[in-house]
Hints:
Layout: H1 5-25, H2 34-53, H3 58-87
Helix pairs in contact: 1-2, 2-3
Amino acid sequence: MTFEWHDWAGYIGVALVLLAFLLLQVRKLHGTGLIYQLMNVLGAIGVMMSLLAGTFNTPAFIMQVAWLLIGAYGIARGFKVRREARAAGHKVDLW
């Protein structure tokens, strides 16, 4: 069995999403933290790349697009909340 670049992108993407979820469950990451959101976004991109270059699966692709959009929303919202907290003089944590 030969692995192409898109196979690796998919496996790494899946590993990132699963690791993010595991770290959330064991309370090593916060669900609103930048690292958690980036792991999900990058994981979704990896899976999408594997679907686009390899065997395409529409439902899986739609799910990854949704995962990407939700993660991007979380990142944008997190930056907004952190900016507002800094403006109010509160200490903010990006993790």
